[in-house]
Amino acid sequence: MRIGVDYYPEQWDENMWESDADRMKEIGVNIVRLAEFAWSKLEPVEGNYDFAWLDRAIQLFADRGIEVILGTPTCTPPQWMLHNYPEIIQVDQHGNRVATGIRGHRCMNSPMFREFCRRIITKMVSRYRDWDSVIGYQIDNELEANQCRCSVCQERFRSWVKRKYGTIEEVNQAYGNIVWSGEFSDFDEIMPPMGEHLLWMNPSLHLDYQCYASDSTVGYARYQAELIRKLDSDAKITTNTWLCEHMPDFYDLFSNMDFVSYDNYPTAELPQNPRELYSHAFHLDLMRGIQGKPYWIMEQLSGIVGSWAPMGRTPKPGMLKGYALQAYAHGADAVLHFRWRTAKAGAEMYWHGILDPSNVPGRRYQEFRDLCQIVGTLPEMEGAMPVNKVAVLYSSLQEYAFKLQHQAEGMYYLEYLKSWHDAFTCLGIGVDIIAWDAPLKQYDIVVAPNLLINDDRVVRHLYDFTERGGTLLLTNRCGVKDENNQCMTEAIPSVYRDLTGITVREYDPLGMVIRKLDIQNDAWADNLGKWSKRVAADQEYSKVSCTRWCDLLEIHMGSVEVLASYGEEFYQGTPAVSRNPYGKGWCYYIGTGLHREAYIALAETILQERKMSYYADLPIGVELTERTKGENTWQFLFNNTEQRQVVSLEEEILLEPFEMRVIPS
Ligand code: GAL
Question: What is the C-alpha separation between 567 and 575, in angstroms, rounded?
Answer without folding.
Answer: 10
